[in-house]
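Structure ticket #2291
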Amino acid sequence: MARTTADRRPIIALTRLGMGARPDDLARVSDAGGWLRGQIRLGGAANPQVALPPTDDQIARLYAYRDQVAQARRADADSGRDPVREARRILIDATAAAFLARMRLACLTEAGFAERWALFWTNWFSVSATKFQAALVIPQYEAEAIRPRVFGRFSDLLVAAEAHPAMLLYLDQAQSVGPNSSVGQRREAGLNENLAREILELHTVGADAGYTQADVTEFARALTGWSISAPPDAPPALRRQAQAGSNGFVFRALVHEPGSRTVMGHSYRQDGHDQALAILNDLAAHPATARRAAHRIAAHFIADEPPTTAVAALEAAWIDSGGDLAVVATTLIGLPEVWTAPQAKLKSPYELIVSGYRAIGLAPTRIEHVQPILRQLGQPPYSPASPEGWPDEAAAWGSPDAVVTRMGWAQAFAEAVPVPLAPTDLAEAVLGGLLSERTRAAVSRAESRSEAVALLLMSPEFQRR
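Resolution: structure written out below.
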């Protein structure tokens, strides 16, 4: 019997808008719209259950580690030893534990939409563990800057993300010095444009908005002084100028480039920290930011080439609400296209592994259970290859080699985990109205329980959302 759109709404909510269905989720989510709206809360998305040291403490550990490296190089230059390897391993292990906690949250949460929404914005403001110093504070970055603000004002999220030490370290902003600042006049120091460029290109208006290289340079000058606390051996004057802010951010007046700035036709005469803040607020309110964000949201939740009507509705909601992400999220779940579009989005490796665990009602207990397969599938923990973040198109994850690797994972996973239901019952529970007769028949005819589960995990309905 053909399933109606109404029949499919709960499973669409759980898979397309959430992180995948668990065996008992369909019984709980009869009111799909109410379930989704109930997760849109001013306090943001839940944080993983893991003890995180404060960002300030992590920065102190980074400076201590650098000192250890320097001392070891002097003391053991000819010994062939690596005495700092263990210190580095301790720091990396702490980040891995935080990633496992984040993945466990995705596997077990009842608020799958809030989790997916938080992951979308984490990827929008992407930082990467490919840069060691940033890796030390990525879990703190998500917990402190991103997750609490994903249903608040975009302008607040933007400022929190750019000011966090994870972003400042990842994009080398912490070492940017205004050439005409007090420090810049006394020593050779350069202006770094990485953060300014990525804010314009990736985090706000986008490359099509018409900004110029001069705008990037002017914005970079305004951002000078946005930094992290100085190391213990820094000159006293520099340490005195570092006025502590929240979550490890400091503003160093001595390295800020003096003077007014002009960015995208607007003049900014504010002093110090407030100059870059004013530019960020204007970029957040720019129509190009609304247009770009609307397209990316629709592309993530509906299709790689999203319907223009959906993009227009999200853009209007953004502009009318002044970038209120709760309003935008509410508009998203009310779009007809969300409920009627075919399954066109191929799950990323992270989404696939999470939904696999959710299908059996469990979560990984060791990082070794997930880290190797995520690496093999091209999505290693916390490590996108560039500030653009993880790709969001099917072509990035659906190569022939990737499909073979997914098959290998499905077979190994199905053989290793306990299955809570008979395979055909499990297929009904986790795919609901999306389950095709072809997949149902394949699962029912499998020669073993593990083969049936592997076929379910590799089915088009499970691989896509």
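Closing remark: The chain has a mean pLDDT of 93.
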